[in-house]
Design a protein that fits this description.
By secondary structure, this protein is mainly β. It folds into two domains: about 55 residues, no CATH class; about 90 residues, no CATH class. The strands form three sheets. It has a five-stranded mixed β-sheet, with no helix packed on it. It has a four-stranded antiparallel β-sheet with strand order 1-2-3-4, with no helix packed on it. It has a four-stranded mixed β-sheet with strand order 6-8-10-11, with no helix packed on it. Strand 2 and strand 3 form a beta hairpin. It is globular and about 45 Å long. It starts with 5 loop residues before the first strand and ends with a strand.
Length: about 150
């Protein structure tokens, strides 16, 4: 199987993923949404210039603001990007991602909070304006969590 190496960088307040071989941007994450370069077949609600194939996935963003511990509902966890603000100190956001499901979690608030994938997780602290990449797993403390900034 061929592997394409991907890098990431912050550009003007947004996160860009690019092919290391030629520098071509393949995915941009901004506060207003996601832009991606995709090739192949596309089925579904797609807006903009698209040439590509997306199978079994969703490229979208959920914006959440809560004053209490919160677990994502099905429609929210179907999004690739979760931008969350906890308005009270010491709160927890539980993602509930399926094994292998990927999500970017961004803290757009002023309070640091804990991100867990399942209720039994120890959790990862997410400070304001910070971004995590989470690859879900159904067993406590086995999800992959990567701090991106």
């Amino acid at each position: 199987m061929s592997v394409t190496l991907i890098g990431s960088k912050w550009v003007s307040g947004l996160l860009e993923f690019f092919k290391r071989s030629d520098g071509v941007t393949v995915l941009k994450v901004t506060e207003s949404g996601i832009e991606a370069n995709v090739t192949g077949n596309v089925t579904g609600n797609v807006i903009g210039n698209v040439a590509g194939m997306l199978t079994g996935g969703a490229i979208g963003m959920a914006t959440i603001e809560k004053a209490v511990d919160y677990a994502l509902v099905a429609a929210e966890k179907a999004n690739l990007v979760i931008s969350a603000k906890m308005t009270a100190e010491g709160k927890t956001l539980t993602l509930g991602l399926a094994a292998g499901q990927v999500a970017f979690v961004y803290n757009h608030g002023t309070e640091t909070y804990t991100v867990k994938n399942v209720a039994g997780d120890t959790g990862t602290s997410l400070a304001t304006t910070k971004l995590l990449l989470v690859v879900g797993h159904g067993t406590a403390n086995t999800s992959t969590v990567i701090a991106l900034n």
